[in-house]
Amino acid sequence: MAEVEGGFGVYVHWPYCLAKCPYCDFNSHVTQSVDHAAWRDAYAREIAWTAAQTPDRRVDTVFFGGGTPSLMEPETVHSVLEAIRAAWPMADGAEVSLEANPTSVEAGKFRAFRDAGVNRISMGVQALNDADLRRLGRMHSVAEAQAAFDIARNAFDRVSFDLIYVRQGQTLDAWREELQQALDMAVDHLSLYQLTIEPGTRFGDLAERGKLRDLPPDDRAADMYDLTQQICTDAGMPAYEVSNHARPGAESRHNLVYWRYGEYAGIGPGAHGRITRNGQRIATDTAKAPQAWLERVAKLGHGVTVEDALDPADQGTEYLLMALRLREGASLRRYSALSGATLPTAAIAELVDARLLDQTGDKIAVTEAGRPVLNAVLRRLLT
Amino acid sequence: MTELAKIRNFSIVAHIDHGKSTLADRLIQLTSTVADRDMKEQLLDSMDIERERGITIKANTVRLEYTAKDGETYILNLIDTPGHVDFAYEVSRSMRAVEGSLLVVDASQGVEAQTLANVYQAMEADHEIVPVLNKVDLPAAEPARVREQIEDVIGIDASDAVEISAKTGIGVPDVLEAIVTRLPAPKGERDAPLKAMLVDSWYDAYLGVVVLVRVIDGVLKKGDKIKMMATGGLYPVERVGVFRPGMQPINELGPGEMGFLTASIKQVRDTRVGDTITTEKKGTDKPLPGFKPSQPVVFCGLFPVDSAEFEDLRDAIEKLSLNDASFSSEMETSAALGFGFRCGFLGLLHLEVIRDRLEREYGIDLITTAPSVIYHVYLRDGTMLEMHNPADMPDVVKVDRVEEPRIKATILVPDEFLGDVLKLCQDRRGMQLDLTYVGTRAMVVYDLPLSEVVFDFYDRLKSVSKGYASFDYEMIGYAEDQLVKMQVLVNEEPVDALSIMVHRSRAEARGRVMCEKLKELIPQHLFKIPIQAAIGGRVIARETISALRKDVTAKCYGGDATRKRKLLDKQKAGKKKMRQFGRVEIPQEAFINALKMDG
């Protein structure tokens, strides 16, 4: 069995939510009823088909994302993991994560998820302030989230949660206080995302009409980012990625597969994959609409709609834009191996000079100052 | 050969949108010159740009055969002239090729500045003028008032103006009858030596240069060896014909007739509008009066966005020059923009037309630098430099004085906008020459520096008058003023393409606006960028673009790789539209937009 550089993970997408959050542009849908048995069957079929296309892999990580995968029946989670084990060998101590909403209903299922094989929970807490939770369209309160979090801690060794900051009207001081509180709660992993207004979302529409008030300006957002780095580092949870913090060793291994540009299979509606077949790296995508995906799997055994061979330049670009998100950075050799080209030394020198990039032998990594302007750094390196 | 008494040559004078092209279409239709199935709108405007913008750039003729009420068949030659002030010289030549004009005025709008400019040219050419009131079927039409206006403003009798609707065809037959009965027949002598006016010319891929001519005296035949009196060029005539409106060969063109000739002429440059054509042997020795080659008055740099396209640009400019003798070009090197061309134009519209054609017909993306006029720079050593690029401005210690071209601008504007129009003219260093009223509208005449008009004056005028002001101008000569060269430095480096000549008293205000605009136009970089405006070594305005602090994707997981990669690729493509100055990238539109004076 070939060792896959960066590891091999399986992503499983559960597309349903109880409500659509106003900031979310993920492939999520609200529905009245779900035929859980049909989903179990479809997942199993697509996993088997994918494994036939991509044999000889050992699964390092599995990730249930969404949507709201904590709305899945534990039995479905169990059967998906069974199908994965039947398709590929699992690495010892493979990481199996599941995203969960911190409501009491879902917290009641945590033990069952653990028994089904999940060993890491990532909770969408989003804010530690009830007014802001309502504005973000969340259906839980801070108290409820804290209760759910306690239940999760009891059931799982590894628990992480997400917060969204740079929210409407948020001040630097308010965020400092909230982040302290979050760090007091946190176990060993925390995702801290700056609110991004995406087109096609409710916030996007509001912003377009000028009705999304009091969004912090970029300068304050930059200050808040800097403050976040400082507080988290002091608390022993430095950023290992742009928005992710962990105690050393507690990083999300599944997400590291993406950022280290490993391979991943995408299972479920709208799930992307990156797979190497006959030496050629391929980008895959599946039907986005849940019903369309189900029908496709029923008919063809898989929901794949896109299989694009990535040319070397595309692979180089993807590798760099993923790997430079990590504090550990990117390998110049790997970039050259993928892209067949080298990065312009003048650009590297210029960025190093500006203290936005560090170079140590084969490795380049964005500095703490460079991380908040990573897109500009990438443009400089790639164009 | 048609006897002179049966010929009428005429042009149509009108403000843009007053219905000149529609009337021409109707006349063509009514005289069955074109079969109905071949009829399309604005038949005489053959270029896409002409049709799209509703303007005429090249002169055109069409020969109509009309059987009048007196039972006789007449040959009517309609010459369609360029309507825009940029082509004033071409218009004046075309006017001299005919004996009469239809003055078309929109009966709901009344007389406009352009109407005036063109009708004065018709009067100067001694035309008989038949007023035609168009759009009389519109509810807003006020024929009586407009008639009065024509008499007051232009001073011609409008009592028997023909009332028509070119759109519906009402009254158009009366126009044909008026042409025959009210316009004079041409004069000329068949037995005299050939004397023909070169009215216009253009390049045809199959025939070479096609020359539009009006025969004054003598006869032009196939096989004649002709001589261009201004250039001395000799050519054997290959074809003689008329436009109906397609080209139709005929045996000869006699006195009073209009038509075309082809004669293996390779370049439009070899034919000069207004030149006199005669025969090599036994020709006339008296050319027609008033010939002058047209001179470019507005200059700008044209650079390819993609420097690899320089050779393509050179080819395209050469091809366009073949067909447009009034457009000049010479190679230019800019530290900022690389290799390109310094091009001269008859005016701003001409500039836009040429730029549009280069981009559209030849597919070249262009950076256009700020338009400049020709300054007369008098040096202390007594010599004079004709400078059409501020980058060429000599060191101030060598300069004695600078003169700039001035124009007389005539603006017609409804009273309610007069204040804003006067302010605009004052702001542009204008000197008021006259202010009179034409009904409820004011007619203001200003002496203005051409440099203040070539850029966005017309846009600003339209904007402050909500589109109601009309404008025309003529060059009136050079005058000295306190003019200095202002440089712009981006990140401490001078950007030559942003240098402009500016009046000393306005330099600071201008510099401030330019710096502010550039601050908006240049995106944030990873470092802070000072922007300075300077005269000589002295900084007169300054802005700073702060360093970029936040540009990062918050969430980027397995499902985002494709989208983010495509976004980066798109930005890469966008970067081609930027120009690199040291470490700073300047978007190409900044070169023009930084100079706009609004806001």
UniProtKB/TrEMBL annotation, chain A:
Swiss-Prot/TrEMBL GO biological process terms: porphyrin-containing compound biosynthetic process
Biological function: Probably acts as a heme chaperone, transferring heme to an unknown acceptor. Binds one molecule of heme per monomer, possibly covalently. Binds 1 [4Fe-4S] cluster. The cluster is coordinated with 3 cysteines and an exchangeable S-adenosyl-L-methionine.
NCBIfam families linked to this entry: hemN_rel (TIGR00539)
PROSITE patterns, per the entry: RADICAL_SAM (PS51918)
Subcellular location: Cytoplasm
Family assignment from sequence similarity: Belongs to the anaerobic coproporphyrinogen-III oxidase family. HemW subfamily.
Essential cofactor(s): [4Fe-4S] cluster
High-level lineage: Bacteria, Pseudomonadati, Pseudomonadota, Alphaproteobacteria, Rhodobacterales
Keywords assigned: 4Fe-4S, Chaperone, Cytoplasm, Heme, Iron, Iron-sulfur, Metal-binding, Oxidoreductase, S-adenosyl-L-methionine
Highest taxon of source: Bacteria
Residue ranges annotated for the Radical SAM core domain, each copy included: 2-238
GO molecular function: 4 iron, 4 sulfur cluster binding; coproporphyrinogen oxidase activity; metal ion binding
Protein name in the entry: Heme chaperone HemW
Automatic annotation (TrEMBL), chain B:
Enzyme class: hydrolase
GO molecular function, one term: ribosome binding
One Pfam short name: LepA_C
Catalytic reaction annotation: GTP + H2O = GDP + phosphate + H(+)
E.C. no: 3.6.5.n1
Top-level lineage group: Bacteria
Membrane topology annotation: Peripheral membrane protein
Subcellular location: Cell membrane
Listed PANTHER family: TRANSLATION FACTOR GUF1 HOMOLOG, CHLOROPLASTIC, TRANSLATION FACTOR GUF1-RELATED
Protein family according to the UniProt entry: Belongs to the GTP-binding elongation factor family. LepA subfamily. Belongs to the TRAFAC class translation factor GTPase superfamily. Classic translation factor GTPase family. LepA subfamily.
Identification of the protein by name: Elongation factor 4
Taxonomic source organism: Rubricella aquisinus
Gene that this sequence comes from: lepA
